[in-house]
Structure formats: C-alpha cells, structure tokens
Amino acid sequence: MFAHRGLLAWALALTLAYMIAEAIGGLWTGSLALLADAGHMLSDAAALALCLMAVRISQKPATAERTFGFYRTEILAALANGVTLIAIALLVFFKAYERWQEPVEIKGPAMMAIAAGGLIVNLVSLKILAAGRAESLNLRGAWLHVLTDALGSAQALLAGLLIWLYGWYWVDPLASVLIGLLVIYSAWSLLREAVAVLMEGTPDHIDIAEVRAAIGIIPGVQSVHDLHVWTITSGLESLSAHVVCEGRPRTAVLTEIRETLARRFGIDHQTIQLEPENFAEDRPLDCH
Q: Along the 288 residues of the chain, how does pLDDT read in single tens digits?
C-alpha cells in the first residue's frame, strides 16, 4: 500500500504539470481534441488524487462499527473513477457535435507538438503505475485513466498531422469522438468489477464449484452448504461455509480444509462451521 502511494504521487505530479500546458495549447491552437485530452487529464488528476486518498483511508485500522476496516474505500474510488470516465466521454461527444456543425481553423503543427508532449507524459505515468495495477482495482482505475489519455494524445497527434498536411479540420472532432469511445470502453470493465465487489459476487478467478469439490473430497467431509466466496478489496478474498463432517477428528478436518483453500485458491480469510451429520438448523439461501 505504501508503495502504491508513492507511485500515485509521482503520476499525479506529472499529470498536473502537463494538464496545464495542454489546456493552454488547446486554446491557442483551437483544437477540440487537445482540449478534450486536457479535460481528460484533469479527470486523471482528480482520479489519482482520489486514489491516493482511498489508499490512505483504507490503511486505517478496523473499528467496532467497521469490523472489516476501510478496505472497501479503494473499491468505492474505483467506482467513482469509472463513473467519471463515462461522464467525460459524454461531454466530449457533445462538444464534438458542436465542432462538427461549426468547424474552426486549427494550428496543425503546434497541435502535434503539444499532443506529442502529452503522449510522452502519459507513457511515463503508465510505466510508473504499471507495477501495482495487477494488485489493486483502485490503482487499475488510475492506470486506465492514464491509458485512455495516452491513446487520446496519440489520436490528437495523428489528427494534427492530417490537419497540417491536408487541411482536414473535420478530423479534430472525429478524433475527439474516438477518444470518447476509448474512454467508455476502458471504464466499462472497471465499473463491472467494482460493482461485482460491492455486490459481493464470486471473484472471476475462483470457480465456486471447484471450491466445493475441493472441500468435499477431504476425508471426513460429508457435504458442504452455505458456501460463499467474495472480495473484500483487491487481492483479499473471503470465504464462509458450513461443512458436515463425521468419522474423523474435527481439528484434522478443519486444518486440511484451511490448508487446501489457502494453497489452491489463495483464500486465507476463512470462516468454517463444522457440523455433525444430524445437525439441524434453518438454512439460508445456499450457493449451488
């Protein structure tokens, strides 16, 4: 987590520095694509700041009211980033429609130079953030922000070249629309994963049937019910299950279950209730 804070701080500093330059450049050249990219960089800065805040809050210790701690803060930040990306894309579409109706003259060479600088800054930020994106959905949200911004800078660079060579001013709003589509594409998977975590869905990399079978073949286990696996935050999965066991010491059964779940599925946070074969209770909805 502390390493993530350092990565995010560096990326935030780079993004803020070039966002100002790109906004000024967009106004100077008259390029909507550059202004759209600058607006996206503003959202990047906000997203990175939100991620930094989420990392700080998530490290707070658990309390009596928040027994799982504040881990979910990172997931909420990822959700907010996804929603922000969608909103930015819709704004870009609206502005592109307006520009399509009333084209303006654009300084192609200057647009190319500014877009090239933005692309370099984004590539550096991507390199910085790449180290932690596989470990944190929150950091992945920030990385996606910067990735779509890098793609936007590349498209603005190409649009500037076409405007410079052929005077195709219509390429500028077209490039901004393509940037918006890239933003929506990257935001969708982030939103889907964040919502899945908040809805306590089974993690994509875990097969619930395989987990049930792995517990069921352990000697002494008769059956498994009320089996649930969910994500608390990125990289932290939790499991609860009721296991009917007979014919073997319960301590041995429980130890083997815990070791199997940790070794095969990487699940260390486990709540296992062992029950005798004739144990009766009102059973809630099971996961089959």
A: 445 667 777 778 887 877 777 778 777 777 776 776 677 677 677 777 777 777 777 677 777 777 777 777 778 877 887 888 788 788 878 878 877 877 767 777 877 888 888 788 888 888 877 766 666 666 777 787 778 778 777 877 888 888 888 888 788 788 778 877 877 877 787 788 888 888 888 888 899 999 999 999 999 999 999 999 998 877 788 999 999 998 889 899 999 999 999 999 999 899 999 988 776 554 544 443
Cβ neighbours around 28 below 10 Å, total: 13
If asked whether residues 136 and 33 sit together in one domain, one would say: yes
Alpha carbon 96 to its chain's center: 27
Question: Which residue from 207, 286, 217 is spatially nearest to 253, judged by alpha carbons?
Answer: 217
Residues 236 and 269 in one domain: yes
The CATH number of residue 14's host domain is 1.20.1510.10
Instruction: Please give the helix or strand (H or E) that residue 219 lies within, else none.
Output: none
**Tokens at 116, concatenated:** 């090239």
Q: Where are the beta strands (DSSP E) in 152-275?
A: 221-233, 236-245, 269-275
* Host domain of residue 212: 208-275
Count of structural domains within the chain = 2
Q: How far apart are CA 45 and CA 6, in angstroms?
A: 15
